[in-house]
Amino acid sequence: MSAGKPTLASVAKEAGVSVPTVSQVMRGTGRISEETRQKVLEAAANQRYVPDSRAASMRSGENREIGLVINQISNPFNAEVISGAVSLLESEGYMVSILDPRDDQVRQGRQLEAFIRHGRGGLLWVPAVDTPPETFDLLRTHGIPTVTFLRRVSRNCDHVGIRNAEATATATSYLADLGHRRIAYLGGSLMTYVRKERIEGYEAVLAQRGLGPGIIWPSGDDKRAGMDAMDALLVGHPDVTAVVCNGDMVALGACYSLIRSGIQPGQGVSVIGFDDIEDASVAVPALTTMAVRPNKLGQKLAQILLDRIRTPDMPVMVSDVSAELIVRETTGAPP
Amino acid sequence: MSAGKPTLASVAKEAGVSVPTVSQVMRGTGRISEETRQKVLEAAANQRYVPDSRAASMRSGENREIGLVINQISNPFNAEVISGAVSLLESEGYMVSILDPRDDQVRQGRQLEAFIRHGRGGLLWVPAVDTPPETFDLLRTHGIPTVTFLRRVSRNCDHVGIRNAEATATATSYLADLGHRRIAYLGGSLMTYVRKERIEGYEAVLAQRGLGPGIIWPSGDDKRAGMDAMDALLVGHPDVTAVVCNGDMVALGACYSLIRSGIQPGQGVSVIGFDDIEDASVAVPALTTMAVRPNKLGQKLAQILLDRIRTPDMPVMVSDVSAELIVRETTGAPP
DNA sequence: AAAGATTGATATATCGTTATATCAATTGTC
DNA sequence: GACAATTGATATAACGATATATCAATCTTT
């Protein structure tokens, strides 16, 4: 009703008590008689009082605001990771706000600095490709508990990842078992750690089975990029009968390319994706893929961050989740 | 190197000057000799000093932290809106952090309260379905400049929307011109404002052309939901030859359903989407849709918020962007 | 009934900034 | 050379909360 926004002081005045008393009532600490408690609560409700965490965190040092820095929030896999992490953290009374530097290292730098300026209490982070080590120093200097995921950039930082090599080895073996002899690897930005690991698994199986050197095509991470890459692959290597993809988005794009070229995914050419995003099961034909439980991954992330916040001296935690082959319609024996 | 994190005081000590002097140097205000300026900058760089905006905003009242509350960040249309708004705001020195209440009104309430607690300087917001009016009062009490978009819930709040009725009228007319007589409307959560407006445009054209009462099927907003809804529609109304969809995700799901039933979208049944997300042009067959420029929409949003922040007494601003019909492969004459 | 323990509240200092006022030293004016 | 204006810095208070110490009033204990 009246002027300025509600503060402890304005509530204290209305309730006829001191500021610290109101503070204690709001937080449920200290000794307060039931009578004054009611008076204070009433005044607070009346003014729609909401405590100012900036002031609180400055004084108390505690900060229940977490940042989540992830590239490409529109990727459904990422969205699921976010959802898992946020649910857990919110249930513990933290607020999670999301930043998306869109894999631009400069923008990421700016955002992380803003992040520090605004005094966050913790960070969940997929580092952009080419993140310089100084960025970690900066976070450490300002004492921000950090967990990276998907991309491991620093050995001194808690991390949650995927058993990438294991997963692509499973995928490649499966295709080889079906009888495929020319198996390509499609997609992923050239520099990413994740892609490097996945290609290792793919190449290990090729080598082990004597299927010759790999055919490896990088691409962006969306459907359009996957489609373009597959178009190019069909021209450059018409003998390929199976493709392991760096992600479901790329795989779905590749399927579109095949359909446009009159090739039925799963009959003419087999395609395996990675992630098991929702589209993978909805698409026609439904996508065979290496499924990761992104929600679980998000929860694990959040749990490690909470542990780190509560036990700062804990040794570095690293946790890898594995992926599971889900066979749908885009894989079959070679023609 | 040393203990605690860098502050104005620690920098001042190292540079041998007072705290206000350092503050002035960091902000480029006041009168400072070049000599002390250099001393201070050096000390600040040496300690990797980053100002604490919490303290700054408390004292100065200025707050360059903006919240963006949007449901379903994984929807590519939303992701583009976000990108447009964030780019503009960041270029003006604001930090934007994203919250996703996933259309849950309770979660939204909790998040907005946390939002206020943490003292944000502005809000871009797609209100969840069923947002109670008290939520607006709360924001007003705490003096947070707010712009809603897509869903208009309060007449007293700045807003950016889409000319929904106009767009679906265009889509429906186009289908009628092609010769369709049984045109259904598919998708959208029952309660949303957006859907209501879109159905108005659809029904207006049906009435005007004497095409009888509409056939209206609600559904969720993702592909799976669109697929299920189309499955049901095929059973319930086998005479339908064209479908106007509430969004591209629903439309793409509907196409999957048609393909699975052996019907070619654009030949057997025509489908028009809404939004023009990236998938719309990549999909096979490519989707005819009502295109909105989400990036523009995001920028407009940001601009209005900035105006509101700078001119709090400005009259309520409402801006509607129009959508454009993009004909691709999922529409054609009825069989 | 005197001494100590408990209860319910408050006074004060502090977190890291910025706004305002003040102040000494230098410069300019006539 | 006296007085005002400017320069370059600092002292102080405030933002809104919390931590710590303190304190009067009440309750135990023997």
From TrEMBL, chains A, B:
SUPFAM superfamilies: lambda repressor-like DNA-binding domains (SSF47413), Periplasmic binding protein-like I (SSF53822). InterPro entries: HTH_LacI (IPR000843), LacI/GalR-like_sensor (IPR046335), Lambda_DNA-bd_dom_sf (IPR010982), Peripla_BP_I (IPR028082). Residues 6-60 form the HTH lacI-type domain. Pfam families: LacI (PF00356), Peripla_BP_3 (PF13377). Keywords: DNA-binding, Repressor, Transcription, Transcription regulation. CDD domains: HTH_LacI, PBP1_MalI-like. One of its GO terms (molecular function) is DNA binding. The keyword NADP does not apply. This is LacI family DNA-binding transcriptional regulator.
